[in-house]
Amino acid sequence: MAYTEMRIAAETKTAHVNNVSLFEYLDEARKKWYHYSILNGVESVVVHIGINYKREVFNQNKLVVRTTLARVGNTSYTLNQTIVNHLEELVVSAEVVLTTINRQTRTKVKVPQGIRSLLDRDSLIDFDKMVAKGNSAEIESGKN
């Protein structure tokens, strides 16, 4: 399945990273998905998040946040997110359901084809590269 990755070093003023910070890392990793939605003419809004905290994270731990498109419905889609540490141990897992809405009327709309087509891919998505190319056909089809 199509996915994005974000690499970070955990930061905190104490030794232990607070779970709220881990939640914020997940949100930060979704920002490219939000932007991609806007490029496809809709806005994506979180309607549900289920999260499981598995391991402690400490200051300056190297982390990878992976966001995978898991399912696409009529007006919503689901992202599975994980955070793993430098030892490849699962730190956090989350399931995030987003609904797509019209940016002007703020009403639900069908998930655009540009997002739907990502479900058929099995590779890392480079949204920045897709946008930099400026090819709206590629953006709409989800190809890069």
Automatic annotation (TrEMBL):
Transmembrane segments: none annotated. InterPro entries: HotDog_dom_sf. It holds the Pfam family 4HBT_2. One of its GO terms (molecular function) is hydrolase activity. Keywords: Hydrolase. This is Acyl-CoA thioester hydrolase, YbgC/YbaW family. It comes from Mesobacillus persicus.
